[in-house]
């Protein structure tokens, strides 16, 4: 399972449709300060369902929508699509590729899609449980997160092992059942 493409429209500084193709192996994002490197990482977290504005370096959810420049009008929505290779069938969808898409409008309306069919945020979270991908899984390790992992209490570190061992799915289902 690996990231194949990322497409952004109106997300933060990426007003125009911007498509990144990830090759096999390691991808490095290079560029001067403020060119949008972290915004790309934010877009991946966002499409995977991140709901915390702090984690997205925003003060309100509509801060992820391109807010204009001196010579360009703000946009009305932001959209990110992430295509993941599923050749090995790690994601429980019978397709060699899985595309997840999230769109948000200035009025707060939000839409999610899995392989172009309308979906719920819950469906996206479920799809990635126990895969290591996901907004709080270990696939995104940012500056400081390594330190955090090393210095955290053992109980706080346990989630990484639970995700890798495939226990997260059952814990989530158990919590849901207990709430009902
Ligand atoms: P550094 O090397 O300093 O970490 P970076 O390449 O990671 O820089 P980012 O943080 O990704 O840079 O991008 C910051 C830029 O994105 C700023 O110029 C900021 O104005 C712009 N930006 C953030 N949100 C929006 C938005 N909603 N609309 C337009 N531009 C935005
Ligand atoms: Mg940065």
Automatic annotation (TrEMBL):
Annotated positions binding ATP? 32-39
- What subcellular locations does the record give? Cytoplasm
How is the quaternary structure described? Homodimer.
Outline what the protein does. Answer: Required for chromosome condensation and partitioning.
Q: What is known of its domains?
A: Contains large globular domains required for ATP hydrolysis at each terminus and a third globular domain forming a flexible hinge near the middle of the molecule. These domains are separated by coiled-coil structures.
The Swiss-Prot or TrEMBL record describes its family as follows: Belongs to the SMC family.
According to UniProt, the name of this protein is Chromosome partition protein Smc
Give the species this sequence originates from. Answer: Parasphaerochaeta coccoides (strain ATCC BAA-1237 / DSM 17374 / SPN1)
**Lineage from the top down?**
Bacteria, Pseudomonadati, Spirochaetota, Spirochaetia, Spirochaetales
Gene this chain is encoded by? smc
């Amino acid at each position: 399972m690996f990231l194949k493409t990322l497409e952004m429209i109106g997300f933060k500084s990426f007003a125009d449709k911007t498509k990144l193709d990830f090759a096999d192996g390691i991808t490095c994002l290079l560029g001067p300060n403020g060119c949008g490197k972290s915004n790309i990482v934010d877009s991946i977290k966002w499409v995977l369902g991140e709901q915390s504005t702090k984690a997205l370096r925003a003060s309100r959810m509509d801060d992820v929508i391109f807010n204009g420049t001196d010579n360009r009008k703000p946009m009305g929505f932001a959209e990110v699509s992430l295509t993941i290779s599923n050749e090995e069938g790690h994601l429980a969808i019978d397709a060699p590729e899985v595309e997840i898409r999230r769109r948000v409008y200035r009025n707060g309306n939000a839409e999610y899609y899995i392989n172009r069919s309308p979906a719920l945020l819950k469906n996206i979270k479920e799809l990635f449980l126990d895969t290591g991908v996901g907004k709080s899984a270990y696939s995104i390790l940012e500056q400081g997160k390594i330190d955090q992992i090393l210095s955290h209490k053992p109980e706080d570190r346990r989630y990484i092992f639970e995700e890798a061992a495939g226990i997260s799915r059952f814990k989530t289902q158990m919590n849901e059942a207990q709430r009902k």
